[in-house]
Amino acid sequence: MYIRVDAKAQKVFMQFDKITPEIRTGIEHANKEARILIMSEKDKQILDTKSKTGVTYMRHKKLAAGGVVRNKKGKAVGFPVRRSAAGETPTEETGAYRKSFDFLDEGADGFIFGTTSPYGGYLEYGTGKMDERHGIKNIFNKVAGNLQTVYEKQIARNIKL
User: Fold this and answer.
1) How do residues 1-53 score in pLDDT, each as one tens digit?
2) CA dist., res. 74 & res. 48, Å (int)
3) For 107-116, which contacts have Cβ atoms below 8 Å and span 24 or more sequence positions?
């Protein structure tokens, strides 16, 4: 049995001589535990605006009919938003990016974790005008050591049954 978490490649490598029903069950249990671990770390990193070092700007409250909300003096009303700097996990501005994360494939051979957001790739890898903001990479780097332990424990627990 061989299990290795490669944080740089954002993958969990598993190799078995033979996948028995016990090992398959252990992997499935570990996938569930890994999902909880990764999703909670994702929320923690995206919602933590205190650690972000990017530019702060005013996001104006929009009216349903268009335009922005203004106070009695005619000044636009809004709230400060801090952007993430290059290399940081993106901040949550609308919630669409954070909600788009999911396990795209789960099975006895592991899982694929990613975002279904149309702009997720631009954030992760950057563009010609914007540096990358590694959401998936940063999340995976943070939990990589724990994933190794999760898989080893769950598989060992099911082999002993």
Assistant:
1) 566 666 665 566 666 667 888 888 888 888 889 889 999 999 999 888 777 88
2) 32
3) 107/31, 108/19, 108/23, 108/24, 108/27, 108/28, 109/14, 109/27, 110/11, 110/12, 110/14, 110/27, 110/31, 111/12, 111/31, 111/34, 111/35, 113/10, 113/38, 113/140
Chain centroid offset of residue 138 CA: 8
Structure-token pair, residue 34:
């890994």
Task: State pLDDT tens for residues 46-62.
Answer: 888 777 888 887 777 77
147, 34 Cβ separation under 8 angstroms: yes
- Domain ranges (residues) in the chain: 2-49+84-160
Paired tokens of 83: 């952007």
CA contacts within 13 A on the Cβ side of 19: 11
- The residue behind tokens 């999340």 is 139
pTM above 0.70, yes or no: yes
